[in-house]
Amino acid sequence: MGESCHGEPNAGKDCQAVRVPMDWLAPSEMRIGLGCMRLSTDPGADEERGHAVIAAAAQAGITVFDTARAYGPTPADVGHNERLLAAALRRCGAAETARVITKGGMARAGGAWIPDGRAKAIRADCEASLEALGGLAIDTYLLHAPDPRTPWPTSVRALAALVEDGLVARVGVCNVNRRQLDEALQVAPIGAVQVVLSPQDDRALRGGILDRCAQLGIPLIAHSPLGGVRRAGSLARDEALTRIAAAHGVEPAEIALAWLLSLSPALIAIPGARRPETARSAAHAAGIALTGEERAALRPASRVPARDARAPAADVVMVMGIPGAGKTRVARDYMTRGYDRLNRDERGGSLRDIAEALHERLAAGAPGVVLDNTYLTRAARSYVLEAAAAHGAVVRCVWLNTPLAQAQVNLVARMIERFGEVPAPEELRDLARAHEGVMAPTSQMRALRELEPPSLDEGFADIEEVAYARAPASPDTGPGVLVAAPALERPGWEAAVAAGEPTAPHLVFDWRPDGAPGALDDAATRLRAVVTGTVDTALCPHEGGPPRCWCRPPLPGLALTFAGARGVDLSRSLVVGSGPAHRTLANALGARHVGVVA
């Protein structure tokens, strides 16, 4: 556990937020709430026990109750948890004093939890929640999570409209990073932020979420504050927690909650409970005061090796960017200058393990270390900054701000170099588990969404943003011509193909779900009648939807495989296309594009 990393809450540029009055909790209200989700979603959950848990929480002084429209025993039972909470609060007489937090923007299609940040979905979910609560006011309405299919400002504006139209008192966001929070603050009066925060997961601290909330006076609601279902049992095995709990005569979970509350007066924890006694135990934690010595004992033990004070401070270079950004090339340049390299693709393990290796290198007196890993978030970068600071070293950041399309080309080229071909979707799953840097297109796209640009207020001595520059092609390669099969069905295709070199290697390519291997033979025959170069065919047969393969245009798998087999320099080549996907592909490859209009 750690309190915060690299700076005070007010460090960095002021965030010009849409302000909202922050009188959320009265001084007399405790900063422990009740997460009600598992009262509906756990197997075997029954309503009578749920009523008893909620009544016990209210009688213990808890006023904040967290629910969501999506919380139900099955996907067909959305709204169940809201109805249960409303009925229980009325039965125990706490309906007038309770602060109900609920959430929308999450679908349960096919048993999966899928964010839905469309404005109409957010409005519909809010209206359905009001109906399920049966007249209980929604104190705070939260968006479950950013939806990768919907522009983030669109979702946040939909939240703001709920306040403007009087449906809810305040709105907030869940499961965001600091960049997403700052963007939301420009659009809506964000009145609360809900993220995971526990002794086992301190990303909200390391990522600057708690600092930003404290700076602006926005309540941070910590969900899964005891680690969630899978991690809660580890609290009883934490030596410091159990020792301090014994000294106070309480359970380790209560000490963990007290520690969380001590991090900031803006923090509210909402542990779940399935039994009345668990709810009462959580409420009791709000009254536990930890000493400074106890709080210090709950921070992670230092694992920093002793540094030789006679050694000069080292130079640490963090090379960051999305997968395929070109980090390896930059790191190798530093290696030629004598820097040690720490790379997860080579070493395996986690980014925390890499930071531990940095501790060891700096303690051994390494004058320079380069770390080339993704480092997408402030939280991920914080471990390196801490390790360097412990040894008096400065960290310079080299951010490869490579566009996604070019990073896709790099990533696919690297897989072809490693495996001799572009792995099929089924192979990708297995290879991704065994090899760092191997992933499906959706994983790389997710990395881009998670990216938080680096900032000096994290503790960097300098940040160098490097724009993408295409590497020069081998002198042994030549031009090629890539022709989309649909273009060969349109008038004027002959003139378009003639814009390329007729003796160069040619490729006829297409995407046809479930297409047979010989599906492009007729198109290839048509092309061979007007060119003298070789004519190959390449077909993507995979289904539509989010891309699972690297071969569906505009993804570059088919083009790169052809280029490698025929010695083609794609940046000197021509793409003859029939739609926007082919133009996008040409731009990614650095090739010329000629469209054949229907």
Write up what this structure looks like.
Helix 4 (119-132) packs across helix 5 (152-164) and helix 18 packs across helix 24 (580-589). 46% of the residues are buried. The chain contains 24 helices and 20 strands. It has 598 residues and is of the alpha/beta class. The strands form four sheets. The chain has an eight-stranded parallel β-sheet with strand order 1-2-3-6-7-8-9-10. A five-stranded parallel β-sheet has the order 12-13-11-14-15, sandwiched between helices. A five-stranded parallel β-sheet has the order 18-17-16-19-20, sandwiched between helices. The chain is 38% helix and 15% strand. It is globular.
Q: What percentage of amino acids are in beta strands?
A: 15-25%
Largest sheet: 8 strands, parallel
Largest sheet, spatial ordering of strands: 1-2-3-6-7-8-9-10
Gap from first CA to last CA? 62 Å
Helix percentage = 25-40%
Quaternary state reads single chain
**DSSP summary, beta strand count:** 20
Supply Rg. Answer: 28 Å
